[in-house]
Structure formats: structure tokens, C-alpha cells
Write a structure and sequence with these properties.
38% helix, Rossmann fold, 16 strands, alpha/beta, formyl-coa transferase, domain 3, 7-stranded mixed sheet, 3-stranded antiparallel sheet
Length: 401
């Protein structure tokens, strides 16, 4: 069967992480994504570690399945080519610093000339408000949204998350907005300018903690590896390694105590209700860890799962990709880059009709790796491309930096 976004052409004017992750997800679903990079330097993320030889793995992680075209948008010829690319695109995605895109293309004029176009803009703080023109970064949004205030424990708070989670969330929301725009266009024939931001994405995932404040006026405090409102639900030490246990019901609490070999623990008067257990969280956790201390994680996990209680290991990255479940999912796919080198990549997190979405091809190894083929597709001749290349309007296969 054809991929879900087969035939959808995406012009990717983004850099760093939020925008590139958005367009990588669209590529996973079958869209033809053309990544426009600045001539010479390319996406700044190409120069960010870690590196595999001269390839940035930061860049590689979110640019799978795309083709690269290097273009100098400071020239009239470069802008003319950009408009030709836009004319053949269904979607344009941009995350320029606020105000920069408008100096390149007038969004209102764009909508007038291409009424069916879906334009997605990703900003730091949204299209209105006193910070609307302020550049945004992941960690700044983590702090401003309240996420950091909810993370960590004791003196280790506020705490940033171990990945650029807000960039990732904004990219995911952007992909969702584009999919909705495409669905709407199919129904009414008209495109839209869809927008999202790092700050809005981050606030949206504070979910019940935000609602807790809005409804009750309560400002949540970080609870480390424990669930903020449910006990027992968190990380627990065993004889050798910690595990996660999540009890979400009274039946689950009784089943856990049975599995741990002390069913009477569930019947203690002070532990009979979820509210009491939350109030006595430290005591509950100590009792559970006392029982867990007799065996290792590998023994406890199947026993607790057999009792119907969600439980699982806490992996390091090497353990993640050795896990039988992860291996069964085929989350790692190896593709060959432009130099013939095998590149292992995580695939997109989608299954369609029982089949996992494939990685179409490796991230473009060089800036403008696909410039010539893309320009030929929009009607230029090889002689045209050679002239543009000689005039440094376009680049073909340049090393970043």
C-alpha cells in the first residue's frame, strides 16, 4: 500500500530540532521532504556534537528521509528558486527567528498566490504577546513553562529533562497541525497558516498539574521518581537494580502486596485508601523496598507483571536497544548514506496496517547533496544548475562549516 502521505511535497525551511523533527515525521509517513539549507554552512545542527567522523549525530537523528538543497536566499536568483519550490509544494515549514521569514516571503502574499498551501510556523513564544519576537530555545521554554519546577527532587530541582523535550514536543505538535491542515484542505480545498510554539507545546503537557493550579490554586512541587498524586507509583530499589512499579487501583495494590509475599500489607488500616497511601508515601515506599530487597530486578519484574501490576526495568541507552521488546519492534533500521556507509537510525514511531513505517533513506550527508536532482525536477536544465552553482546561488554536496 502507498504511504499515508504519498504524493505530499514538503518544503523544509527549518533548522536545529523542533522543525526538523516535524518534517522527519512527515517523511516517515511518506512525504517527499526537501530540506533547504543555507549555502556553505547548512543547518547549524550539522556542527553540533556528538560526531561520527564528520557527521553530526544531532543532525542525523532528525533529518532521516529528506533530500538537501543548498540555496543562498540573500540573492534574487535564490529567492526566485525558493518561490518555484514553494509553487510545487503542498506544505512549507519554517522556524526562523521571529520576523526573519517575513523578510524573505510575505505570508499574506504567499497565501494569496498559493491558496492551497499549508504553511506551518514554529516559534519560541507564539504569534502574540510581549515575547512574540524573542528567539526561543528548549531549555528556556522548559523553565518558563513550569516543566523544570516539576522535575527533580530535593536540592536537585529545578531540573531540566535529559533530552530537548520541548523541541521534540513542538515538532510533534507541528506535524499534527500539518496533518490536520491537509485533512481540512481535502475537505474544503483551502490551505491554512498553522502555528505553534515551544512555550505552548511545553505548557500543554503539564496536563493535570496545570489543571490542579487552575482549579485548586495548588502549586505542585517536584516528587522525583514518584508519581505526583498516586502511591505506590515510581522507582523502587531491588537487590541489584531499580525498577518501576505503577499501581493505579485498589485491586492493583492488593495484587502487588500478594506478589511481594506480604498480602497483609494491603490490609493495614493506614494503607487502605489511595489518599492515605499518598499521605504516607515514604512509609509505603520503605515497606515495598524492604520486600523487594530479597531478589533482583530480573526476578521481580515477571513476578509483578504476572500479578497484573505494571512493572518494568530502568534502562540505560545500551540496554534499551538490547531489550527483546525493542528488538522485536525493529526500532533500529540501517540505511546506506551517500558515501555507501551503513547508518543505523531509529525509525518513526508509526505502524500502518500492521507494518512499521520504514526509513526511506539516510539523512543527507552533505549540504546540498540533492540540489541538482531537485532543481531538475522543477524544470531547470543541467546548464542552468551549473550556472547557478558557479555563481554561488546554489551548492551541491558541500561539507558543513
Amino acid at each position: 500500500m502507498k504511504p499515508l502521505l504519498d504524493g505530499v511535497r514538503v518544503l523544509d525551511l527549518t533548522r536545529a530540532l523542533a522543525g526538523p523533527l516535524c518534517t522527519a515525521l512527515l517523511a516517515d509517513l511518506g512525504a517527499d521532504v526537501v530540506k533547504v539549507e543555507s549555502i556553505g554552512g547548512g543547518d547549524p545542527a550539522r556542527n553540533w556534537p556528538p560526531f561520527d567522523e564528520d557527521t553530526s549525530l544531532y543532525f542525523a537523528a532528525v533529518n532521516r528521509g529528506k533530500r538537501s538543497l543548498a540555496l543562498d536566499l540573500r540573492t534574487d536568483e535564490g529567492l526566485a528558486l525558493l518561490h518555484r519550490l514553494i509553487a510545487r509544494s503542498d506544505v512549507v515549514v519554517e522556524n526562523f527567528r521571529p520576523g526573519v521569514f517575513e523578510t524573505i516571503v510575505d505570508p499574506a502574499e504567499l497565501r494569496e498566490r498559493h491558496p492551497e498551501l499549508i504553511l506551518m510556523s514554529i516559534s519560541g513564544y507564539g504569534p502574540v504577546g510581549p515575547e512574540r519576537t524573542t528567539p526561543g530555545l528548549d531549555q528556556i521554554a522548559q523553565g518558563m513553562s513550569g516543566l523544570m519546577s516539576l522535575t527533580g527532587a530535593g536540592e536537585q530541582t529545578p531540573m531540566r529533562m535529559g533530552v530537548p523535550i520541548v523541541d521534540a514536543l513542538a515538532g510533534i505538535y507541528a506535524a499534527l497541525g500539518i496533518a490536520a491542515g491537509l485533512a481540512s484542505r481535502r475537505a474544503n480545498g483551502s490551505g491554512q497558516h498553522v502555528q505553534t510554539s515551544l512555550l505552548e507545546a511545553a505548557i500543554s503537557v503539564t496536563v493535570f498539574q496545570a489543571q490542579r493550579f487552575l482549579s485548586l490554586g495548588e502549586v505542585a512541587e517536584p516528587t522525583g521518581n514518584d508519581h505526583p498524586t498516586i502511591t505506590p507509583y515510581g522507582m523502587f530499589r531491588t537487590a541489584d537494580a531499580p525498577i518501576n512499579i505503577a499501581v493505579g487501583s485498589e485491586a492493583g495494590w492488593a495484587n502487588l502486596c500478594e506478589a511481594l509475599g506480604e498480602p497483609e500489607l494491603a490490609r493495614r488500616p493506614q494503607y487502605l485508601t489511595s489518599r492515605n497511601r499518598l499521605r504516607l508515601r515514604e512509609d509505603v515506599n520503605q515497606d515495598i523496598e524492604r520486600l523487594l530487597s530479597g531478589r533482583g530486578a530480573a526476578e521481580w519484574i515477571p513476578l509483578i507483571r504476572a500479578a497484573g501490576v505494571p512493572c518494568g526495568p530502568i534502562h540505560t541507552m545500551d540496554q534499551v536497544f538490547a531489550d527483546p521488546q525493542v528488538r522485536a519492534l525493529g526500532m533500529v533500521q540501517t540505511v546506506v548514506d551517500g558515501d555507501g556507509k551503513p547508518v543505523p537510525l531509529t525509525r518513526g514511531p508509526f505502524w500502518v496496517d500492521g507494518t512499521a513505517t520504514p526509513v526511506k533513506h539516510a539523512p543527507p550527508r552533505t549540504v546540498g547533496q540533492n540540489t541538482e536532482e531537485i532543481l531538475l525536477e522543477i524544470g531547470l536544465t543541467p546548464e542552468d544548475v551549473a550556472g547557478l552553482r558557479a555563481g554561488r546561488v546554489v551548492g551541491c554536496g558541500e561539507v558543513a562549516g
